[in-house]
Amino acid sequence: MNRDEFREGLRGGFPIMVAASPFGALFGALAVDNGFSIADAVFMSAAVYAGASQMVGIELFGNNVQPWLVVLSVFAVNFRHVLYSASIAKHIRHFTLVQKFFAFFLLIDPQYAESERRAERGLPVSFSWYLGFGLIIYFPWLVNTAIGAVFGQLIGDPKAIGLDVLLPIYFLGLVLGFRQRDRFLPVVAASAVASVAAMHFVGSPWHVSIGALAGVLLAACLPQEREPGEMPAIEKEA
Amino acid sequence: MDAQHLTLIYLIIAAAVATFATRVGGYVLITQLKHIPPRIEAALNAVPAAVLTTLVAPAFVYGGFDVATSMLVAFAVGLRLSSLRMLLVGWIVVMVIRHLIL
């Protein structure tokens, strides 16, 4: 371990930790609102460590969606990480197997983006730097989840204090974060129409899979413009 | 521990394994595959926006006047500002409608 690079990682991750903190608390509060205990919420933050998919998970769990569909949805929301891990491969090939295990576990959007940026500037993507950057975000994420969960238990009716609009707006913000991608508008339009129709004709939770499938199939069927192998732009989470 | 809580614990573990799989998957694939077929790549690329849209659109259509208004205003804010500000503005709008107007 290189102390200077570890500290450099801590400094780099600090602003992201601050920006992510309210979302950790929000997750904790909403998790409790959806039937989680405080320990469950912290356990999920510690084990999954992927904010957006955790929100999706508690929302579906709270609506009594079948467990396999909850896991599938978490998988689907996190699918972009496949692209990150493919693209980061060339920078972390020198990590040991154990180091790679930790590196992949901590591979959230900003971790990926900053690693790519660091490599681009010719700086070494060392394990010390990577771990420092990751841990300063990881542990506060757990603490903020616990804080949010504690306060969430004190809340009676979430509608009276406007908690129920936060998740749709949060997801709306995430959708907007993808708007630079190819075929964004047709994909969103197809998924929106299909999910609204499925909600009406089939009912929850099927609107999620039916709506998502419509957008994904459309993207595969539309004429392909981009050169194969080119990586898409990174979007920031939260 | 009752059965429902046990289901939740297993659910969280499964979600964690699924998430870890996505984070390792690309590395494993890229060291095997030379290149991904463009249509598969386009489909994968569309997954997050497609999934997330299904959690937004029905809430907007079936959520009622207060939720829809708050989401519209948040959308306008989100084109320019961070998602944290979107949440704040959307929350203020829904609280004003619920407690002061309706």
TrEMBL record, chain A:
What does the record say about its membrane topology?
A: Multi-pass membrane protein
UniProt keyword annotation of Lipid metabolism present: no
Kindly indicate whether the keyword Cell membrane belongs to this entry: yes
> Which residue spans adopt a coiled-coil conformation according to this UniProt entry?
none
Q: What does the entry list under GO cellular component?
A: plasma membrane
Domain of life of the organism encoding this protein: Bacteria
* Entry's localization field: Cell membrane
Which processes are annotated in GO (biological process)?
L-valine transmembrane transport
- InterPro entries the record matches: Brnchd-chn_aa_trnsp_permease
| One Pfam family this sequence matches | AzlC
Q: What are the record keywords, sorted?
A: Cell membrane, Membrane, Transmembrane, Transmembrane helix, Transport
What residues form the membrane-spanning segments? Answer: 12-32, 68-86, 129-154, 160-177, 184-200
**What is the similarity comment for this entry?**
Belongs to the AzlC family.
| Name used for this protein in its record | Branched-chain amino acid ABC transporter permease
Instruction: State the organism of origin.
Output: Rhizobium fredii
From TrEMBL, chain B:
Q: At the top level of its lineage, which domain of life is listed?
A: Bacteria
Keywords linked to the UniProt accession: Membrane, Transmembrane, Transmembrane helix
Q: Which Pfam families does this one have?
A: AzlD (PF05437)
| Residues spanning the membrane | 6-30, 42-65, 71-97
Q: Which InterPro entries match?
A: Brnchd-chn_aa_trnsp_AzlD (IPR008407)
- The name under which this protein is listed is AzlD family protein
Q: Which organism is it from?
A: Rhizobium fredii (Sinorhizobium fredii)
